Amino acid sequence: MPSSSPRIRTLHTVAELRAQLRAWRAGGERVALVPTMGALHAGHVELMNVARTLAQRIVVSIFVNPTQFAPTEDLGRYPRTLAADLEKAGAAGVDIAFVPDVAEMYPPGFATTISLAGPALGLETDFRPTHFAGVATVVAKLILQTGPDVALFGEKDYQQLQVIARMARDLDLPVEIVGVPTVREPDGLALSSRNVYLSAADRAAAPALHRALQGAAAAIRAGGDIAEAVATARAQVSAAGFALDYLEARHARSLAPIAAREEGPIRLLVAARIGATRLIDNIGVD
Ligand SMILES: Nc1ncnc2c1ncn2[C@@H]1O[C@H](COP(=O)(O)OP(=O)(O)OP(=O)(O)O)[C@@H](O)[C@H]1O
Ligand SMILES: CC(C)(CO)[C@@H](O)C(=O)[O-]
Ligand code: BAL
Fold this sequence. Notes:
- By secondary structure, this protein is of the alpha/beta class.
- It folds into 2 domains: about 10-180, HUPs (Rossmann fold, 3-Layer(aba) Sandwich), CATH 3.40.50.620; about 195-285, Pantoate-beta-alanine ligase, C-terminal domain (Pantoate--beta-alanine Ligase, Chain: A,domain 2), CATH 3.30.1300.10.
- It has helices at about 15-25, 40-55, 80-90, 100-105, 125, 130-145, 160-170, 200-205, 210-220, 225-240; strands spanning about 10, 30-35, 55-60, 95-100, 150-155, 175-180, 245-250, 265-275, 275-285.
- The strands form 2 sheets. A 6-stranded parallel β-sheet has the order 1-4-3-2-5-6, with helices on both faces. A 3-stranded antiparallel β-sheet has the order 7-8-9, with helices on one face.
- Helix 6 (about 130-145) packs across helix 7.
- The protein is globular, with a radius of gyration of 19 Å.
């Protein structure tokens, strides 16, 4: 296997990106955008594989977006592996890696932030109150900079996916938002760039998160009480050594809380901390 794809180009400025995109569009080619923060793993590669089925050209952005991190969070130690990322993206058939620096995305005087409600309410927002405003603003910028036909996001970050889909509809962004199912380790742990933070003991305990969700989903599917299933899963996550931020059942699309059993699919979502690592996961019930 070649050590890198001859095709991938790394661009650092919006002007270069737009020039390339104009050329592709003039040739009638469909373009897919895969936004990432780098430290690429098989979950990201799956987004690229799906992108290849939807478009002729793929742009992957690699940008550790400072505005979605709170001052107390891990911006400074977030894994940065650009050389390996370019190898993986090239091997996955990506045409362009867009790797802007912070000043390119947030020039002096930058003063605009997208304000969110709906699916952004609760869950992550209760623990990361400014997070989705940062995500939505940078994703809107990336979509406007690239002008893709389709943009792909992982279901691993399920609330993020719903927030972005809602934003694209609300702001009439001319792009199709596509969600890609979560890629997991054989023991069920969702792949995540932050898994590198896990100690060996924490890594051994981590699959309990997915197991607890699976158990709750099975109980609800079998007709069990949602609140009871959620309570059992919370206890299982805590017993595995996690400090729980939340574990909730929500309506899958709106992410509205579930007061009583209603029509439509349900999603179970969890965030919990083990050691120095905060993990999230989710599962569909129906
Ligand atoms: N296991 C996975 N399966 C499918 N998609 C994934 C997976 N992990 C990440 N993604 C998606 O890849 C895109 C980029 O995510 P990001 O670069 O933040 O990686 P990450 O692994 O989610 O990192 P983090 O540890 O910060 O959550 C997002 O749309 C995210 O949902
Ligand atoms: C969508 C995203 C690339 C925006 O910075 C980020 O939140 C992520 O990697 O999931
Ligand atoms: N994958 C989500 C990005 C974040 O947690 O900041």
